[in-house]
Amino acid sequence: MRWRDGRRSQNVEDRRGSRVGLGGGGMRLGGGGILLLLLGAWLLGVNPLTVLSVLAGGGGETLQLPDTGTGSEPGSAAGGAPADAGADFVSVVLADTEDTWTELFAQSGARYAPPKLVLFTQVVRSACGTAQAAMGPFYCPLDQTVYIDLEFYRELRDRFGAPGDFAQAYVVAHEVGHHVQALLGTSEQVRAAQQRAGKAQANALSVRLELQADCYAGVWAHHANRARQVLEAGDVEEGLAAAAAIGDDRLQQQTQGEVMPEAFTHGSSKQRVEWFGRGMETGSLERCDTFRS
Ligand SMILES: [Zn+2]
User: Fold this and answer.
1) Ligand 1 centroid, distance to 72 Cα (angstroms)
2) Nearest to 138 by CA among 171, 182, 93
3) Separation of 28 CA from ligand 1 center, angstroms?
């Protein structure tokens, strides 16, 4: 991906290495805490089973808080432009989504209010609750912020076999896709429908919401490439490979050894590839109507 000359976003907040201040030296998660975490995971479209297995695998209920390493004051890392390549890259991708969605919204006479993006390590507090890096990157509609621990990119490459910068851009663009859904009112409608629905139906609605975010990520890539020629040879394949790598069926196979379609919350690998691909090919929001098809 061609990105080094791109604009940097003003909406990145670097909270890496800052402590989640909950008093004391650690954060105990009692039964209620776990429930809250699971509820949060469900709201965010994360498979609660993943969170449970993370907690179980953690060998205890005490979350390890990030080690600041440098001995810096808590919060001192916040603000300012991050200097490292990983953060720099995310900042450029975010800026590109800002430019692209601003243009697309303007075409239909609307104003795009960009999301914030918070970089964190291990644990982060959001308006949607406290989240662990193991839950993966997420978007919180309550504070209109994307949260990402860059360690996820190493996981994506090493554990899920999806390397490459465009694979990483897809992850940011997917979360920004959720922000677009929030602005358009889609997420709110889906949440309301989910509250009336049973578990299986709620999961099915979650899948449609996630596939639409994939499609929106593709729409971003389509327009970014048309305006700024960001794509290089192999990029499309990288993005599609990443979409396939984090399909529910493949993740379930890896973590549980079996596939349970009724527990899908994000869609199968095949579906994720299809919808991301559809957005990339057409560049059309209207073609991202995952709720109708
Ligand atoms: Zn998502």
Assistant:
1) 33
2) 171
3) 28
**Paired tokens of 63:** 């979350």
What pTM value is reported for the model? 0.80
Whole-number Å distance, alpha carbon 41 to ligand 1 midpoint, is 11
Cα–Cα distance, 212 to 215 (Å, whole number): 5
Beta bridge partners of 117: 12, 146
| CA 23 to ligand 1 centroid distance, Å | 31
CA 277 – CA 60 distance, rounded (Å) = 41
pLDDT tens figures, 132-189? 998 889 999 999 999 999 999 999 999 889 999 999 999 999 999 999 999 999 999 9
What's the CA gap between 123 and 133, in Å, rounded? 6
Contact 131, 146 (CB under 8 A): no
How far, in Å, is the centroid of ligand 1 from the Cα of 21? 27
The tens digit of pLDDT for each residue in 24-52 reads 333 444 444 444 455 445 445 554 444 44
DSSP 286: G
**Distance from Cα 293 to the centre of ligand 1, integer Å:** 19
Q: Distance between CA atoms of 178 and 147, rounded to whole angstroms?
A: 12
